[in-house]
């Protein structure tokens, strides 16, 4: 299985438009973060988790020519606003499978109503096949995917486990029985927004506490704000099995 980090930034991305914060002005490419998303590939299958506003550029940058489906964590704009840019995949491949919680599917239907139109549909609009995710394992081709139910303040969000890889973003709290589903995975990805606490995201300290409960071989932090600091400096402060993810990072497992 191969994981590619397409984006590792929080909702505004880094740099923030117009910001003169030192991290936004950094020339280190690891300090430039598109909105959060990963590509998960195994055998000949390619799935993307979330498709935020940077989706088009992320697909170009990763050289991604085919997707077998999109899996959504939740409906916030930084995770869905690239949905229209599935069009090139739709034109080449036909209807694109999407996987999401019932509430997320409802939100997509409302915000991208033309995609779901059945009568007099605009010919350039893409068509999708919807698959509802409940909090129980589901199949993507030959892979069993285990949803992890987490909370983003009050909002329900899904994380996902693929074999020995678990991906959780936009987490603020996780019940113990959900943590059990990912105990001792090889690679855990989880969000760490900044140093200061935040109402709906783990800060660095909460993310590190969560990582020690899960006890993975390696953990990577994502959904990062400029307020976390410079990549090179923050990484020096982390435990030896914890790393900051960066855009373009690939992991094979
Ligand atoms: Zn987000």
From TrEMBL:
InterPro entries of this UniProt entry?
A: Metallo-B-lactamas, RibonucZ/Hydroxyglut_hydro
Name the source's superkingdom. Answer: Bacteria
| Residue ranges of domain Metallo-beta-lactamase in the record | 34-223
Q: Which SMART domains match?
A: Lactamase_B
Query: What Pfam families has UniProt attached to this entry?
Result: Lactamase_B_2
Q: Which PANTHER family does the UniProt entry name for this protein?
A: HYDROLASE C777.06C-RELATED (PTHR42663:SF6), HYDROLASE C777.06C-RELATED-RELATED (PTHR42663)
Q: What is this protein called?
A: MBL fold metallo-hydrolase
State the organism named in the record: Thalassobellus suaedae
Lineage at the top is: Bacteria, Pseudomonadati, Bacteroidota, Flavobacteriia, Flavobacteriales
